[in-house]
Amino acid sequence: MPPLRLRAPHAPHAPHAPHAPHAKQAPGPACQGGFGGWPRVCEDSLRSISMTRARYTFDSSRSCVWVRGRSSLHPINSETRGLTGWFEASSTAAGALDLDRPVSGELALAVERLTSGNQLYDRELRRRIDAQRYPTITGVLTGVARAAAHPNYLVTGDVSFHGKTRTFEHEMQIEIRPGGVVLSGEYVFDIREFGMKPPSMLMVRVYPEVTVRVELHGALADG
Questions:
Q1: Where are the domains of the chain?
Q2: 118-137 as b/e: b if 16+ CB within 10 A
């Protein structure tokens, strides 16, 4: 009869510790993508991705400035094209300006292009401006800050007119588009700030405040 073999009893298994519940993730920003294996990209990430700095040249045939003035007799309005200049900026993938990088630009307009259709008024205006001595109105962009929301921005710049340079700050809309940019805005100037007296003709008084609206169309510069 074969000898009996005694086996030591197995030690009881320690009970498994309960799994800790998974922490719930806080809802994140709305995302897009996640199709065909591509990673999901959140809107916040899109806003933070900066594109290459680009230079745009203003189209003088499309860019325009409208000037509205008043006299004691009737309104004085003009519409002028022929503005020249450029704008440089970087933008995010969402189309907003990247204000962490420099934004710059310049604008110029020949005084002789300003016309109201009234030869008597235009001749007196050029005489007061001294157009032969100061033939060009220029603007230099010196700063851009966020306003309410894109595409609204608070723009600071130096305007040179009639031999005087003054700094102004006003709101503009700046939209980066495929292959181009559009800047638009409106501001009320007092020509006396530039040392210029309002024109006067016979018994007609011209008021010094003028409303200037500008719309600039820039095309992506080559290279």
A1: 49-220
A2: beebbebbbebbebeebeeb
Instruction: In whole angstroms, give the CA distance from residue 53 to residue 143.
Output: 16
Q: Which two tokens stand for residue 56?
A: 């745009």
As a whole number of angstroms, the distance between CA 194 and CA 160 comes to 8
Kind and range of the H or E element at 141? Answer: strand 136-146
pLDDT bucket at 223, cuts 50 / 70 / 90: low
Q: What is the pTM of this model?
A: 0.75
Q: Which pair of tokens denotes residue 109?
A: 């307009």
Q: Give the homologous superfamily in CATH for domain 49-220.
A: Lipid/polyisoprenoid-binding, YceI-like (2.40.128.110)
**CA 209 to mean position of chain CA atoms:** 25
pLDDT, residue 123, reads 86
Give the Å distances, CA to CA, from 96 to 51, 149, 152, 186, 217.
10, 9, 10, 21, 17
**Segment 165-169 mean pLDDT:** 97
